[in-house]
Amino acid sequence: MSESRSSALHTDRYELTMLDAALQDGTAGRRCVFEVFGRRLSGGRRFGVVAGTGRLLSLIRDFRFGHEELAFLRDEHVVDPATLDYLEDYRFTGTITGYREGELYFPGSPVLTIEGTFAEAVVLETLALSVLNHDSAVATAAARMSVAAGDRPLAEMGSRRAGEQSAVAAARAAYIAGFGATSNLEAGRAWGVPTMGTAAHAWTLLHDTEEDAFRAQISALGTDTTLLVDTYDIRTGVETAIRVAGTELGGVRLDSGDLPTVAAAVREQLDALGATRTRITVTSDLDEFAIAALAASPVDAYGVGTSVVTGSGVPTAGMVYKLVARQDADGGWVPVAKASTDKASRGGRKTAFRALDDGTATSEQIIVADGFDTSPAVDAAHPDARPLQVVLAERGDIDNACEGRVGVAAARAHHERVREELPVRALALSRSDPAIPTVFVQR
Amino acid sequence: MSESRSSALHTDRYELTMLDAALQDGTAGRRCVFEVFGRRLSGGRRFGVVAGTGRLLSLIRDFRFGHEELAFLRDEHVVDPATLDYLEDYRFTGTITGYREGELYFPGSPVLTIEGTFAEAVVLETLALSVLNHDSAVATAAARMSVAAGDRPLAEMGSRRAGEQSAVAAARAAYIAGFGATSNLEAGRAWGVPTMGTAAHAWTLLHDTEEDAFRAQISALGTDTTLLVDTYDIRTGVETAIRVAGTELGGVRLDSGDLPTVAAAVREQLDALGATRTRITVTSDLDEFAIAALAASPVDAYGVGTSVVTGSGVPTAGMVYKLVARQDADGGWVPVAKASTDKASRGGRKTAFRALDDGTATSEQIIVADGFDTSPAVDAAHPDARPLQVVLAERGDIDNACEGRVGVAAARAHHERVREELPVRALALSRSDPAIPTVFVQR
After folding, report:
1. Nearest to B199 among A14, A169, A189 (CB)
2. Cα–Cα distance, B115 to A412 (Å, whole number)
3. Residue B443's pLDDT is what?
4. How far apart (Å, rounded) are the C-alpha atoms in residues B413 and B406?
5. Interface contacts (A, B; CB < 8 Å)
6. Residues A224-277: pLDDT tens digits?
7. Chain B, nearest residue to A131 by Cα
């Protein structure tokens, strides 16, 4: 594979040219606070789901410039020799706090706060945003589908509609946000996501008859397998399936046609044949709206492809990575913010709480603090508010509880728990304002 | 990093369960022809651009099941021991033909044809589609932007809005389709795409004044650098930039505001200050329509982020991987096709030509052949037609001219050449039918 193992060049060139210039003019060592946040929720979503944090922390651990990376930067004259020396020894030694993976976020939520020298923090911008923007977009779409599906299981099967590495990240993000399984084997190996899948149309076409294909599949995978019945005529397919498998057949899958109509007809046919416990899985071009529209249909499980891995119309979450505070020449602190039209940011370190009323979220409270001092432990105005930020890395030491399979399982559990706090209006799929307002409190 | 080096588990589980069943029922060794094609061009696009082929071939070369992959499949009981033995020795030994990378495609174009045993070809489905669907979606969007930009240079800077690995693939695809540079350093290292970038808003905010920031940047990067002038007030920013850099300043960058208005005002101001050769780069939320709308504005270069890496509304190309012909039990061949509603496919091996009239493309001619025999070398009805398919791998031996940096350069050159064949109507950005019709000819 052509990809390098190090994550260090997943960096926009301007980060290194800024580093280069900052090492020259003496500002590289100024302590800085960078913040990742979204100015708005794209697509009229009512809430966003943070995902990617556990992946990002591992990638920051691997953010080291090896021989190959340094040679490229030298040969291309991206930076000068002093900067190459700095990068050779680079490792992040700062502090990262942020929302737990699986947490909900709203406009302005300080999803990630990176504190360190300008030099060490500025170079993480692209990597942090790539991971969080992709994974959070998928998780947000997945959560909406999970809300729409209710108790029916959802499987992610969109790997073929996403870049081969993003597909793995997408399966992971969808699982965190409520999907139960994925078709992607690498997501199973790397992240412990349960995998599923039985047969494609090619399986039926490989055989001289549909019956041959069904017989061979049942022989290999057992009667509890799911047979794909729409390669030719669905009615004949179902009839053949039950004739071959018997009424204990695990399931049939429908991948085409007008699903409410077809599902109802197939259920009726299965019941008439005595296969009353044979499940119906549908998998054709589903998104959260199609899933919701099937709520009254006799469907037992959904498989979702394109729409979940592409964020169902919102393929990227739109989070930005902004400098919000820094030291000045005397070591004092300065909150900073740009004033650009439509892109103004809010300076100062943020501490975030979710205000709750009887267990239901009522607002995102963001306290803007006046410096590098310790964040407030509680929000005085909302004593029951839930603190949203946790320490993810301290003096460069990354909390490995967030990483790997353990991190994924914890994120999924956290998401399930915090989704319970959402007000009912947040569960509607239509475009709207965020489900709760963001309230900034200046300290 | 948690990603495995092998590409072998970038596979949907059902591919391996089909393999498992086929090894048991004796159909695994049937020779098969699988075809990658798109049923339609999504988003009312007038043409599509094939990209990813060179990446895919390298990934197929690395499609091997090592200890870690086999252990996962065994521990999860995905396949039985005989299948594990088969996978341990797996390497693709078949033939791949396809459109050159950078080639244009239309509905039904046989973008890739994979011939081999069912066993060896079925397991490549997800990997092939992940790569081609992602990269072709980006390349298609990029080509539209390149058409809109005309002679003005275009830089890709969307890494932060795509998964960290897809970002590299996106930079590569955009370069093939006409972009001149990328912000992504890994795309420079891995694929030879020229990289660019100078400074972000954080650079200005790091300093006590905008003037300090500009002075330091010029000191480090030279007068020919590009200064970002919209952190605070643009008019003041431009004035400061020229005062500090002199009238030989290379460029200014605008990243916010109503760009036609702002660009005109900045050009007037620069000229009045004597900086008549200072270039204006704009970078705020551009897509092909915004680029076209700036055609009459005094803009010298464009930087495009989100829209190009997310396919400008079409984040995935919608290509499918379908069995179109196979051997039967006697070794004879059978063209096959599913009949599913709205998803019917066309059986038989395809040979594709682009019919030309005086150098301008008039139709996509697809000859459907009756078996495994050699494809026709010319299209008899269109003697000037250009053959579209080349051999990419023969008996498992991959043509390395398509891989790496050399492959990228060749793809970019090929794209530039074949885009010249498009009829004028194909260059319009509005939604439409494909620019040329696809004509199937049954042999």
Report:
1. A14
2. 41
3. 76
4. 11
5. 382
6. 999 999 999 999 999 999 999 999 999 999 999 999 999 999 999 999 999 999
7. B163
- Assess A202–B contact: CB distance below 8 Å, yes or no: yes
Which chain A residues contact residue B73 at CB under 8 A? 185
- Secondary structure of B103-170 in HEC code, one letter for each residue: CEECCCCCCEEEEEEHHHHHCCHHHHHHHHHHHHHHHHHHHHHHHHHCCCCEEECCHHHCCHHHHHHH
Cα–chain-centroid distance for residue B398?
A: 20
Q: What is the pLDDT of residue A341?
A: 80
A197-to-A182, A183, A303, A408, B439 alpha-carbon distances in Å: 8, 6, 10, 22, 36
- CA dist B115 and A80 (Å) reads 50
Q: What's the rounded mean pLDDT across residues A101-116?
A: 98
Q: Walk me through the domains of chain A, giving residue ranges and CATH numbers.
A: 13-138+314-442 (3.20.140.10), 198-296 (3.20.20.70)
Quick: pLDDT tens for A355-377: 999 999 999 999 998 665 556 66
Phi, psi of B317 (to 5 degrees): -80, -10
Q: What are the E-state strand segments in A288-401? A: 301-304, 319-327, 333-335, 349-357, 360-369, 386-387, 389-394, 397-398
- The closest of B320, B392, B380 to B353, measured between CA atoms, is B380
Inform me whether the pLDDT recorded for A4 exceeds 80.
no
- At residue A1, the pLDDT reads 38
pLDDT value at A379 more than 70: no
Report the run of H or E that residue B333 belongs to, with start and end. strand B333-335
ipTM for this model:
0.97
A72 closest CB neighbour out of B13, B161, B188 = B188
The b/e string for A334-357 (b: 16+ C-beta within 10 A; e otherwise) is ebbbbebeebebbbbbbbbbbbee
Q: Do A184 and B10 touch (CB under 8 A)?
A: yes
Does the pLDDT at position A329 exceed 50? yes
Q: How far is CA A348 from CA A26, A242, A327, A351, A367, in A?
A: 23, 66, 12, 10, 9
| Total residues found in chain A within this entry | 443
Q: Which residues of chain B have pLDDT under 70?
A: 1-5, 370-379
- Binding-face residues of A in 356-395 toward B, CB within 8 A: none
Taking only residues 208 to 267 of chain B, the set having a beta carbon closer than 8 angstroms to any beta carbon of chain A reads 208, 212, 216-217, 219-221, 230-233, 255-258
